[in-house]
Each structure stands twice: as C-alpha cells, then as structure tokens.
C-alpha cells in the first residue's frame, strides 16, 4: 500500500488575517514495506505531516492519496484511519478502559468485528509487542509500568491491522533498555509482515541511524532532504538547519581528524565497533 502526497500545503488559521504555513509544497511517496525516519527541529512540520497521512488533517491545498483513496473523501476517512495507525507521543496518556484487553480491543470493536475476532486480535497484538495475555489482559492498564503502558497503546493500534504504522516519538521518556526492548518488538512485527510500512518520527539521531532505511528531513515546513540513511548522515548538511548527527559519527570523525586511519562515514555503534576492531588489528600487525 502506497501513500502519495502531491503538492500539499497545510495552513493554520487559513481564513484569518494571519495564516501560517505549517507545510508548503510537499511531494512524497511512502511505499510498501519501508522503515522511514522523519526528522526535523520542533516546528518543522513533522507532526502536521503525520496527521495528514491518515486523514486526521486534510490538506489546505494538494492531495494525500492513501491506497488509491483521497483523504478529502470524507466518507472514506474511517477506513483510511484503520489502514494508517498513528501512535502519538506518550500514547499511554490515551489509555482509558478498565482492563488491558478492553483497551486494546476498542479499535477492533469500532471496526464492527465480532467478539471472537476481537479476542483473537487482542491476543495476537499483545504477543506482537511482547505482552503476556494470560498475566495482564484483565489488569487495569494503569497498574502497569510506563514501558508496558506504551506497549498496550501500540498493541491497540496493531490490533486494527494497519498497513502503515506511524510512531511519533515512540520511545520518549523511556530508559535505554525500554527503548531497545520496544524497538526490538516493532522490528519483529515489521519483519513478519511484508506489507507493513513504519514511519518513525524521532529527535534521536541514534534511533534513526540504527533502525531506518530512508530519512525524510523537514525544515520550516518543507522537505529539506529525502535520502537513504547512509546518504543522510554522510552527505547531507544537517548542521546547516540546526540538526545534530549521531554521537558515534562525531567520534569517528574526530578520531580520523587526529590521524587514525578509520572511516569517517560511520553512523551506527555496530559499524563503529567493526571499524575500530579492524583499525586496532591493523595497527598491531
């Protein structure tokens, strides 16, 4: 399933004396089975853009086409929102039901599914994010840890079987282990579903460098860059728009500048370990 944005503008306060462009002339295609990073400074248009993807916002100009359907078709938006699942920052704040199972089953129930199918989806979506159905399905979600609450919220979106999963600052506020654990489950979900696309909105350059294949960089409501992860972190001048690069990239560049014969186009810790091992072995020969 593809999503196409064609000549899209989004204007806040459009009918007032002080309209404000949040997005200007956006042209993008999001294809099946990609992991895309969406980065940019606060106010760059990221949050507006992701809300356009599932029809929560409608373009002021241009078109957003989801699986061949224009989001401007009001009677089709409900179906679009089942296909494009949006997990907001701190999604645990959206939990409201008395049990975990009821909270996760809320979406499927809204889809008109019967109890048997709802139960099936609740169990499978909990398993997909590493939650034990037998242990916590009847617990209140508010009894759980922050990381578990985050997983319940994600599970509630997954239970609707979306074809695009948009994760807006998914790991904000989690400790490093919690971040790694939830990303591990998300990657399993992606690897087990050849139809699934993931859009990861993040301020963490390390997370983007580690997990995504393609990076869309937003700046002042426009697409500044849309390239592979490698090209983004090795060839794109992110500093010119106030964005940082991964810490490991800074380390490798500084090491090379100080005379070490190492690659300076590295942006993940795993690749840095391999390169440093090569360098030390060559140095000791």
From TrEMBL:
EC identifiers of the protein: 7.-.-.-
Keyword Glycoprotein among UniProt keywords: no
Topology class, membrane: Peripheral membrane protein
InterPro entries per the UniProt record, alphabetical: AAA+_ATPase, ABC_transporter-like_ATP-bd, ABC_transporter-like_CS, ABC_transpr_CbiO/EcfA_su, ECF_ABC_transporter_ATP-bd, EcfA2, P-loop_NTPase
SMART domains: AAA (SM00382)
Family, similarity comment: Belongs to the ABC transporter superfamily. Energy-coupling factor EcfA family.
Identification of the protein by name: Energy-coupling factor transporter ATP-binding protein EcfA2
Organism: Anaerococcus porci
């Amino acid at each position: 399933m593809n999503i196409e944005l064609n000549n899209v503008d989004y204007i806040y306060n459009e009918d007032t004396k002080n309209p404000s462009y949040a997005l200007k002339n956006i042209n993008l295609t999001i294809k099946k089975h990609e992991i895309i990073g969406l980065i940019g400074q606060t106010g760059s248009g990221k949050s507006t853009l992701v809300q356009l993807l599932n029809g929560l916002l409608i373009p002021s100009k241009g078109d957003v086409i989801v699986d061949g359907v224009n989001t401007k078709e009001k009677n089709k938006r409900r179906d679009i929102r089942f296909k494009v699942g949006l997990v907001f920052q701190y999604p645990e704040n959206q939990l409201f039901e008395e049990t975990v199972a009821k909270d996760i089953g809320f979406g499927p129930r809204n889809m008109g599914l019967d109890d048997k199918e709802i139960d099936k989806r609740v169990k499978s979506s909990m398993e997909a994010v590493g939650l034990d159905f037998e242990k916590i399905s009847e617990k209140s979600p508010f009894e759980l840890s922050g990381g578990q609450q985050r997983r319940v919220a994600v599970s509630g979106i997954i239970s609707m079987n979306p074809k695009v999963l948009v994760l807006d600052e998914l790991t904000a506020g989690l400790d490093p282990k919690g971040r790694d654990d939830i990303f591990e489950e998300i990657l399993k979900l992606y690897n087990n579903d050849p139809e699934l696309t993931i859009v990861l909105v993040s301020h963490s350059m390390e997370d983007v460098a580690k997990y995504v294949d393609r990076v869309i960089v937003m700046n002042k409501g426009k697409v500044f860059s849309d390239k592979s992860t490698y090209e983004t972190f090795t060839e794109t001048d992110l500093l010119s728009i106030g964005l940082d690069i991964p810490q490991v990239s800074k380390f490798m560049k500084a090491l090379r500048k100080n005379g070490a014969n190492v690659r300076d186009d590295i942006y993940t810790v795993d690749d840095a370990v391999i390169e440093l091992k090569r360098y030390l072995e060559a140095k000791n020969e």
